[in-house]
């Protein structure tokens, strides 16, 4: 876009100005160049040029990539926006809602016994999943989110809920059913037609129900057929009987269930051997499925549509008491049987296989590579870590896997103009490096308004980051000063406890006074309170104004006292001595002062002497003024000496 | 509190305001406007929570706010007020003051008038931080320390008070039709009288020795001299502007900046505050005596129900309830109105029995059964 600049150079480094992401300095071996990027017009660019690009720096808003072959006459600065996802408004809801859940998860009390915590973890897992599903409903492109939810759900069943044999299969059935919603749509279509039993999809629906273990619904559908088939009435009755007698896995203990199931399985097998359903091809098919015949199942690939559906169905009708540890044998073989031997397994398939293998780390690793956003792995790993399921892998730079992923995710969030606030909480819960990351990132949030600056300051102050507080306040003070808002600048320097800057601003105030003859921003100066002690110059400014106020109110004695203290305390800047003396002039003429304050005269005399000596060096001191002063002082001194000398009763 | 579910809206909400309901109709408000901030493209949006059904009806899902229309806004929306039923005035971080017109028939929004650089600095933008309306007059304040008086039907500003404040002014409210009250970033309240031509305030109040920035100010609906303020330290102060330079009550309300404080417009015994610490508090003050408040004071009309406006003449116990010198917590009941901890609650508005608020977690909460 607008921002390309041609620089002939070799090595390039780009540094962005803090708090101003439109300004950057490009350093190279031939010098440096100041560039202004107009952000509004830059969009995501693809690197489709022939030069070798290398990424040089990230800032709060955008990573900048500089490309240029050595020796070539030109290089271009590209503004690249990574992570398109963050900018989607619907995914923003995902990020915000999951942030809420994340923070809630971190605050679960550590001291609870683990059996109390498990249901909480399961419910948190379900919350995350419902957030994903809510986004899926709104987003057009659902495939990634579907895959994410599928994987998360499986992880919840296998790792977080960690269900034992028996209920394992039921949970897996639920998992498959949740992700194969088209059966219900088809069923609705069939039932709403004029004659459901003659609908071309009728038997597909019945078979699908059986494949998913939804035998009650299969029975209901078959009842419609049975009502119209007088000839095969007995067969339908037999099938209905078989379907109703399949033992449900939830009620009995494992051994009881095993016994019951074997009985039922033998009965179904007998029906098959007796060829009871031989004359009805559909019922025969269903019987074969019920007995768990693999070939029959494989003939219905398009109804199963995925190898894991095949896996669960096969287990349901052949090995319903499967233990979690045995899963991976069957998963491997089912995948091999189902998929074409020519096609390689897709990423999703290998992730699910790793999950069936209970290899959590492999799941996380594969997901990190496959997905272009850290959201999923960061949150899932965090939850698994809370469930104490991750071994503490120490990565070579010291933090563990959970922290690494959270840091990556949160850093990505910080790149977003709005979502950076969420990232703060994530950094807070990374004990090793979170604080350092936060310190570096928080200073680079652009501050357009005071309100945003206050929010950032609140974050820094809550976490005891005084360096960042000072730096932010100083930048706000500088900005105010640039706009001639001296009062604002002073308030910011006071907040930063920046004595040097406060001195600078006080000088400006004093300069203004010298040029204009009046003070500005009195509402501020009068009400500084103890803050005025921040810098000598500031104290002088406040006290000097107080002097003028007293003078205006005709409290000459007080005014004189104050002036004297100002002079003796030596906090007046040299440039101001002349003004002070000039102010002292009329005071000296005031009768009451000369009578009650001989010290003032003496102090002023000291100062005049210094001034006179000084005036020989500086030509711009008005000599007439000095003469007048000397005269007034001499007269005053005379009166004072007389008064001192007079012994009064 | 039941019936406060979050609606996530993909934008950080800086302001929420109910559209005023006509005083004759006794209906509850059902339309509110929101402004966003910190976005590349900020927006003002108008939402509806549907007509309030019969009391007792299960209307959990009906309460979900539906977006009616929205419009792009240049800069953060730092303040937002309804000028009347159809027009909204916003204060922008670019220094602009804009009047938007909401066309109810077509559910669209258009810009009726804009003062583009009403607040400005020599080198940078000066955000306009506060706006208050008393149709057709609009008063705005900003980080440039200016106070500007506009009229909705006039092209230029009616009056500009330059350098009204050496620091940034954070909020403004009307005390009377010709008097306003501003709060600034060094903890001062300043009264300005537009009948006077001078550009200095008629009165300055502040907590002596303290320079804690004040962020919000609200006037008691019936007693024009009672004002509540909230600031950076989360303290809720109630002032009587007629007397004294210090607030009457100081209550530690929040642990971080208090962004907004509102008296309930018809039931001023109730006060609402929201803060950066992610909480929204409902303060209820009990009167001194056991007698219900509507039976005290000048008027002795037992037909006045509690929800009607309090007698205009002023009810002694109502006043003193807020100004009790040592308002121990015993006389104040506080309720958290949000279900769980969230990021900063930036804004709230309450009208009738309905409360709406917006947070930095990009969520809006609506509660239609506020116990007032």
UniProtKB/TrEMBL annotation, chain A:
Naturally occurring in which organism (per UniProt): Myripristis murdjan
Any one GO MF annotation of this record: structural constituent of nuclear pore
GO-annotated biological processes: mRNA export from nucleus; positive regulation of DNA-templated transcription; protein import into nucleus
Family classification: Belongs to the nucleoporin Nup85 family.
Subunit structure: Component of the nuclear pore complex (NPC).
Protein name: Nuclear pore complex protein Nup85
Assigned GO CC terms: nuclear membrane; nuclear pore outer ring
Lineage: Eukaryota, Metazoa, Chordata, Craniata, Vertebrata
Cellular localisation: Nucleus, Nuclear pore complex
One Pfam family it belongs to: Nucleopor_Nup85
From TrEMBL, chain B:
Signal peptide: none
WD repeats: 207-249, 251-293
A Pfam entry, by short name: WD40
SMART domains per the UniProt record, alphabetical: WD40 (SM00320)
Coiled-coil segments: none
Cellular location(s): Nucleus
Keyword Repeat among UniProt keywords: yes
Domain of life of the source: Eukaryota
InterPro entries membership: WD40/YVTN_repeat-like_dom_sf, WD40_repeat_CS, WD40_repeat_dom_sf, WD40_rpt
PROSITE patterns hit by this protein: WD_REPEATS_1 (PS00678), WD_REPEATS_2 (PS50082)
Alphabetically ordered keywords of this record: Nucleus, Repeat, WD repeat
GO cellular component: nuclear pore outer ring
PANTHER family linked to this entry: NUCLEOPORIN NUP43 (PTHR22652:SF0)
Name the UniProt record assigns to this protein: Nucleoporin 43
Organism field: Myripristis murdjan (pinecone soldierfish)
Protein encoded by which gene: NUP43
């Amino acid at each position: 876009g607008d921002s390309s600049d041609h620089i002939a150079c070799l090595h390039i480094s780009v540094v962005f100005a803090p708090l101003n992401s439109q300004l950057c300095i490009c350093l190279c071996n031939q010098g440096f160049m100041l560039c202004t990027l107009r952000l509004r017009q830059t969009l995501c660019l693809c690197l489709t040029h022939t030069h070798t690009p290398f990424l040089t720096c990230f800032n709060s808003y955008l990573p900048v990539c500089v490309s240029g072959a050595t020796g070539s006459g030109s290089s271009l600065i590209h503004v690249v926006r990574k992570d398109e996802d963050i900018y989607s408004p619907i995914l923003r809801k995902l990020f915000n809602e999951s942030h809420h859940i994340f923070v809630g998860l971190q605050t679960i009390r550590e001291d609870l016994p683990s059996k109390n915590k498990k249901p909480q973890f399961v419910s948190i897992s379900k919350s995350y999943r419902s957030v994903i599903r809510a986004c899926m409903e709104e987003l057009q492109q659902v495939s990634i989110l579907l895959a994410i939810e599928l994987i998360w759900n499986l992880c919840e069943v296998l790792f977080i809920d960690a269900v034992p044999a028996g209920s394992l299969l039921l949970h897996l059935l639920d998992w498959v059913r949740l992700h194969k919603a088209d059966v219900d749509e088809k069923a609705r279509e069939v039932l709403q037609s004029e004659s459901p039993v003659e609908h071309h999809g009728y038997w597909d629906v019945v078979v699908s129900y059986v494949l998913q273990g939804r035998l009650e619904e299969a029975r209901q559908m078959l009842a419609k057929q049975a009502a119209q088939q007088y000839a095969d009435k007995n067969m339908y009755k037999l099938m209905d009987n078989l379907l109703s007698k399949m033992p449900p896995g939830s009620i009995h203990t494992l051994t009881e269930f095993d016994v019951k199931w074997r009985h039922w399985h033998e009965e179904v097998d007998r029906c098959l051997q007796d060829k009871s359903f031989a004359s009805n091809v559909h019922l025969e098919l269903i019987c074969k499925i019920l007995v768990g015949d693999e070939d029959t199942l494989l003939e219905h690939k398009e109804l199963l549509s995925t190898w894991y559906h095949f896996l669960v169905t096969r287990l349901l009708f052949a090995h319903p008491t499967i233990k979690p540890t045995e899963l991976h044998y069957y998963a491997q073989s089912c995948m091999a049987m189902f998929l074409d031997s020519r096609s390689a397994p897709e990423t999703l398939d290998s992730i699910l296989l790793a999950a069936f293998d209970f290899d959590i780390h492999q799941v996380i690793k594969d997901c990190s590579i496959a997905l272009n956003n850290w959201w999923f792995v960061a949150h899932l790993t965090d939850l698994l870590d809370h469930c104490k399921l991750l071994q503490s892998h120490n990565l070579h730079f010291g933090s563990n896997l959970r922290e690494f992923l959270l840091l990556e995710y949160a850093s990505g969030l910080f790149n977003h103009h709005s979502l950076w606030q969420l990232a703060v909480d994530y950094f807070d819960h990374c004990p090793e490096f979170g604080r350092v990351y936060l310190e570096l990132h928080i200073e680079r949030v652009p501050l357009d308004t005071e309100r945003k600056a206050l929010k950032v300051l609140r974050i820094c102050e809550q976490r005891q980051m005084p360096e960042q507080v000072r730096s932010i306040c100083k930048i706000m003070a500088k900005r105010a000063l640039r706009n001639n808002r001296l009062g604002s600048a002073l308030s910011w320097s006071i907040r930063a406890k920046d004595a040097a800057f406060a001195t600078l601003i006080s000088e400006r105030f004093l300069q203004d006074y010298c040029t204009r003859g009046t003070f500005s921003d009195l509402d501020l100066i009068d009400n500084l309170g103890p803050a005025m002690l921040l810098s000598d110059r500031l104290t002088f400014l406040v006290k000097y104004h107080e002097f003028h106020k007293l003078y205006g109110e005709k409290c000459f004695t007080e005014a004189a006292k104050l002036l004297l203290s100002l002079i003796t305390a030596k906090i007046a800047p040299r440039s101001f001595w002349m003004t002070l003396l000039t102010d002292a002039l009329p005071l000296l003429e005031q009768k009451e002062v000369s009578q009650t304050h001989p010290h003032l005269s003496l102090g002023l005399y000291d100062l005049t002497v210094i001034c006179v000596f000084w005036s020989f060096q500086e030509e711009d001191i008005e000599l007439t003024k000095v003469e007048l002063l000397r005269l007034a002082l001499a007269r005053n001194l005379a009166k004072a000496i007389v008064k001192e000398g007079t012994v009064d009763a | 509190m039941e019936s406060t579910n979050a609606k996530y809206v993909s934008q950080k909400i800086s302001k929420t305001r109910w559209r005023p309901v006509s005083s004759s109709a006794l209906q509850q408000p059902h339309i509110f406007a929101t402004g966003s901030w910190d976005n590349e493209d900020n927006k003002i949006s108008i939402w509806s929570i549907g007509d309030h059904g019969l009391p007792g009806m299960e209307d959990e899902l009906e309460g979900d706010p539906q977006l009616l229309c929205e419009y792009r806004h240049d800069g953060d929306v730092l303040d937002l007020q309804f000028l009347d039923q159809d027009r909204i005035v916003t204060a922008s971080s670019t220094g602009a003051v804009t009047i938007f017109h909401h066309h109810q028939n077509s559910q669209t929004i258009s810009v009726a008038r804009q003062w583009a650089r009403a607040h400005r600095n020599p080198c940078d933008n000066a955000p306009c931080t506060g706006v208050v309306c008393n149709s057709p007059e609009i008063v705005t304040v900003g980080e440039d320390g200016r106070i500007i008086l506009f009229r909705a039907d006039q092209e230029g500003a009616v009056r500009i008070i330059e350098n009204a404040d050496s620091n940034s002014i954070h909020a403004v409210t009307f005390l009377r039709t010709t008097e306003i009250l501003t709060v600034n970033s060094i903890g001062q309240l300043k009264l300005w009288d537009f009948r006077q031509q001078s550009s200095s305030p008629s009165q300055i109040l502040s907590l002596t020795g303290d320079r804690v920035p004040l962020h919000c100010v609200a006037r008691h609906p019936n007693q024009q001299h009672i004002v509540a303020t909230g600031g950076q330290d989360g303290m809720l102060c109630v002032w009587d502007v007629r007397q004294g330079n210090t607030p009457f009550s100081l209550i530690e309300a929040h642990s971080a900046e208090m962004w907004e404080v509102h008296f309930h417009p018809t039931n001023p015994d109730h006060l609402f505050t929201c803060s950066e610490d992610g909480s929204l508090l409902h303060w209820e003050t009990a009167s001194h005596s056991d007698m219900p408040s509507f039976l005290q004071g000048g008027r002795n009309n037992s037909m006045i129900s509690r929800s009607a406006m309090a007698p205009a003449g002023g009810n002694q116990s109502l006043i003193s309830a807020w100004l009790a010198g040592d308002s121990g917590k015993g006389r104040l009941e506080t309720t958290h109105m949000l279900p769980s901890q969230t990021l900063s609650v930036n804004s709230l508005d309450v009208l009738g029995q309905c409360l709406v608020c917006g947070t930095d977690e990009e969520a809006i909460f609506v509660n239609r059964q506020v116990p007032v």
